[in-house]
Amino acid sequence: MTECIALIRGVNVGRAKRIAMSDLSRLVSDLGHRNVRTLLNSGNVLFECSRPDPGKLALALQNAIIEAHGFSAPVAVVTAKDLQVIVRENPLLHLATDPARHMVAFARQAGDHVTTRNWATVLKLLAASTGALRPEAQK
Fold first, then answer.
1. How confident is the model over 79-121, as pLDDT tens digits?
2. Rounded CA gap, 5 and 38, in Å?
3. Structural domains of the chain ordered from first start
4. 3-state helix, strand, coil in the chain (%, to 5)
């Protein structure tokens, strides 16, 4: 099983596009994934899957959201291993002094809409997926 993180763009930021995290967890579980859990109330879902194809996973979740909730929300999926690389190799850590304002953009594929997460949330997602952060990534 491979740990993955789905990042859903634009949910729960206003009155439109509302999804309860319990409903989102159930939706991801219904797609056949295991150990599903959410982080914060902004469309971050961690789960385990047997075939980690981020593009296919993102599209399946995006379609499930349309079917279940009647609106579209772009989804990007990254494996926990890839998220570790993103954190470890971030070239801007020496410049970023406020993790709440240091943004990371994720896209399903090149040229797609992106969803962003601040560095503090990226670190929380990494910690939730791996259980521990590398000390140099905590800046």
1. 999 999 999 999 998 898 899 999 999 988 878 889 999 999 9
2. 9
3. 2-131 (3.30.70.1280)
4. 35, 25, 40
In angstroms, how far is CA 90 from the centroid of its own chain?
17
* Rg of the chain over all Cα atoms, to the nearest angstrom: 14
Q: What is the DSSP letter of 72?
A: -
CA distance 14 to 5: 23
The CA-based diameter of the chain, rounded to the nearest angstrom, is 43
CA triple 107-112-115, angle to 5 deg: 40
**Confidence class of residue 131 from pLDDT cuts 50, 70 and 90?**
low
pTM over 0.85: yes
Joined tokens for residue 30: 């219904």
Which position has the higher pLDDT, 26 or 12? Answer: 26
Q: In this structure, what token pair is assigned to residue 10?
A: 């634009």
Classify strands 34-39 and 44-49 as parallel, antiparallel or unpaired: antiparallel
